[in-house]
Fold each of these.
Amino acid sequence: MSIKEKASEELLLEEAVLTQNEIVLFNDDVNTFDHVIETLIYACEHTAEQAEQCAILVHYKGKCTVKTGALKDLKPRCSMLLEAGLSAEIV
């Protein structure tokens, strides 16, 4: 393997690592399971089963990563969650 190929490979790996962010959803005492599930289906394009599992994890663990990806994709999704009254942040 040449030095040029190795450097290119390392750069691609670095970019892949740097572009992955997460939306973390936090538990609260206000929103119902149904509201959280419906919002995750709408904002994060979860299936009903995924959304239900995330809602259960948030309830029992206090938080859950609900979406991973590029920051430009996560920002509007996180905004939708916040506008729906959920507690979430991008990390």
Amino acid sequence: MTDQKPGTYGTQRKAAARNRAAIIEAAHELFAENPHVPLSEVAKRAGVGAGTLYRHFPTREDLILAAYQHDIERLTATADEVLERHRSAKKAFVEWFETLSAYVRIKHGLGDALHSAAAQDVIAASWAPTTAAVKKLVDACVAEGSIAPGHDPADIIMLMSFLWRVADDDEGAAQARRLIATVFSGLQEAPRPL
């Protein structure tokens, strides 16, 4: 038996959930600035002690994976909002993929932490929601006439993967715009097997 008052456990769980969310949000922000940021800085930004951070995320890899998963979940949930914000489905499509590419660039900067078996499980789990979000964008583009019907969203993700390979500077942005124009030119035709 414990001496805890009724409701204390529930209060502790809520505080733990808030701390976990604050740590993940801080990691999201700081990893974007510097993938090698010390975890003590993440704890400081989250407003928690190092012990609290390590209780939730025993290793750096655990935190990296949680931040990555959180980012992808947040992005996949925005497809409808991005479509609502733009009159053009094509512009929404481009904005959404640019945001995805920024997340992937951060992921690539996190190196070895995202090559473990646990990381591959997290990345694989993100595939279905990402594909579903892309399907919404593609369907809107088909309805608008900027993409022909019949294109597979998974194929389009692979095609758009060039975005996270271009340089993250003005020259890379110009190259990305040229490549996006080429992609949309090709997507205006129905897919056909070779």
Amino acid sequence: MAMTPLVACVVLSISLGLIPSSLGVILRTMDKIVWANEFEPIELTCLIESISTNNPRIEWKKIKNGVPSYVYFQNKIAGDLEQRAQLKEPANILIFNTTRSDTAEYRCEVAAIDDQRDFDEILISLAVRVKPVVPRCSVPEAVTVGTSTELRCLENEGFPASQYRWFHNSEELPQDPKNHPKFINSTYSMNPDTGGLKFRRVRKEDAGEYYCQAKNEAGHAQCPPQTMEVYDVDILGIFLKVLAAVASGLVVTVCMYQCCKRLCFPKKGHNENNYNWPAQTSAFDYVDDDEGHFRHKSSFVI
């Protein structure tokens, strides 16, 4: 539908700023997606492009997990930002020191009762970057030439998620060793997202100090260096085999001793050869001392 000449003239005049707009309140922002580093200040802009009401009602709400809460209400800072923010004219919010809990959506609302369009709102997404903490690193103390092993690195505090880099003797290892002449014979593979450093076949040259660095847009942190030694012979394996052999020998010796003890020294018991001989009796029997003589009790058979 074509505009009438009068309407077209009014729209053109408003767009050129020749006459003030009385159609309603209009808001805009510098950035609808805002990134901030933790503990640093950030300003959320809510610019009023046109308004006729002298004292509009301004409110800010924080929306996290779908639940709104006030951060500016009845002309004062409230909620999570209390004592940590202020309203700057005309309707901007300045946060003095952002924290990871401030990551959310923020909605600026302006109500103007004297305007034909008496309400407008704008939504801003704030994401707070968090510096990584010192990652947890796992480096084997000793490995054998030709075997496989894995070094691990992980931290869970950084936002956005950290990317990982490994260093060998203070020199950064390239993500793909095949693209670098110095590391072309290396057999490792690196995953920058998980922090894993896997060696398919360890070489003598792989011995040395290793440390890992976790990094994102807010900063980086690294674990202390740890030494990995590479041996030609599996000393630990040999020691364990010898220990197992000695233990087996001791067990066999004890078993043989117990068997010999039971066979060579049987327990005493009753059998057909074990009986008591009757006590021998004398042909003479003596009477008591007070009788003063002895008595012949049995006769001789001739």
